[in-house]
Amino acid sequence: MQGMELALQWAAKSMFITTPNPRVGCVIVKDGTVIGAGNTQPPGQAHAEVQAMNDALDRGYDLRGATVYVTLEPCSHFGRTPPCADALIKAGVAKVVMAVGDPNPLVGGQGRSKLEAAGIEVVSGVLEEQAREINIGFMSRMRQGKPWVRMKAASSLDGRTALHNGLSQWITSPGARDDGHWWRARACAVLTGIGTVLEDDPQLTVRAIETPRQPRRIVVDSRLQIRTDARILEGGGTWIVTAVSDTEKEACLRDKGAEIIQLPNAAGKVDLPALIKELGARQINELHVEAGFKLNGSLIREGCVDELLLYLAPSLLGDARGLFDLPALESLDGRKHLTFHEIKQIGPDLRILARFT
């Protein structure tokens, strides 16, 4: 197997653990043999390159003259850990093959420059697109100051998410629902609206798969209507985003471990674009939206969504609730355009990833 393909497999091991840092994998090869491999650990712990070097040394290998395959440019600055570029130079490796440069302005080519200045051959762009995908949220935050926003919804083939009486459990199969939890787990935060909280009282935790951490939970609640016994508050750490101030209610919510974020717009609702920027400032890389058709529509109208994650069941519900509350168009020129990124069958259902253009 090619070194970078293996490094990407190691990067995937970091899927649920590195936030807000990128998911990175590293493989070290010498004389045609893989002598070390590793992946980035939780914040404050070893990066992928150090993990791989330690793995090789623990197995008795000499790193001098080795080739290093790493999915992201080695860091060149002191953060919670020392620079990986310096460690590679000290180890005496001969060549570093990296998939993609680090968009972090603290790195931004400096890692590569350090390596080349030390006489190490550097090759970049190997399986670059795959490496970008695994860190799509980190790339978005570093370049645009905002997270990658993925909106998840499940519907029938005619685009219905629930009956008029609110019944929606279950439109899709258990396999599709479990798959949705995997996408929920990889996100830094899960966002929903107050309508969903009042109607369904969800936990919005990851339960269908094993995960070492739970994503942050966020509720858009313009009028601060959330009940203090809502399940989404259990365990603390929930962010409530509102447009009003209510000292007594806020004190009760803080007692539950929640944080109140006030971001009103001119209409007295939550300023959604400002919220997305705020989440970027709070180091949220990937935001997973599971909301009702009203908030879904508002987020799309405001240009806040990058990608749709849709599960389509092979059924028809007829006149029922739709996916998005979007205004009627007078011309097709006003429609939102997307591209299909991936289509996959999950049990009897289809999973569609579609990106806004």
Main traits of this protein?
alpha/beta; 357 residues; globular; 28% helix
What does the model show?
There is one protein chain. By secondary structure, this protein is of the alpha/beta class. Helices cover 28% and strands 24% of the residues. It has helices at 3-12, 48-58, 84-91, 110-117, 128-134, 136-144, 174-186, 194-200, 247-255, 272-281, 293-301; strands at residues 25-30, 33-39, 67-70, 95-98, 121-124, 148-156, 160-162, 189-193, 216-220, 239-242, 259-262, 286-289, 307-313, 321-322, 338-346, 349-356. It has a nine-stranded mixed beta sheet. Strands 2-1-3-4-5 form a five-stranded mixed beta sheet. It has a two-stranded antiparallel sheet with strand order 7-14. Helix 4 (110-117) links the parallel strand 4 and strand 5 (121-124). Helix 3 (84-91) packs parallel to helix 4 (110-117). The two termini are 34 Å apart. The model has no long low-confidence stretch (mean pLDDT 94).
Topology:
Layout: H1 3-12, E1 25-30, E2 33-39, H2 48-58, E3 67-70, H3 84-91, E4 95-98, H4 110-117, E5 121-124, H5 128-134, H6 136-144, E6 148-156, E7 160-162, H7 174-186, E8 189-193, H8 194-200, E9 216-220, E10 239-242, H9 247-255, E11 259-262, H10 272-281, E12 286-289, H11 293-301, E13 307-313, E14 321-322, E15 338-346, E16 349-356
Parallel strand pairs: 3-4, 4-5, 6-12, 6-13, 8-9, 8-12, 9-10, 10-11
Antiparallel strand pairs: 1-2, 1-3, 7-14, 13-16, 15-16
Helix pairs in contact: 3-4
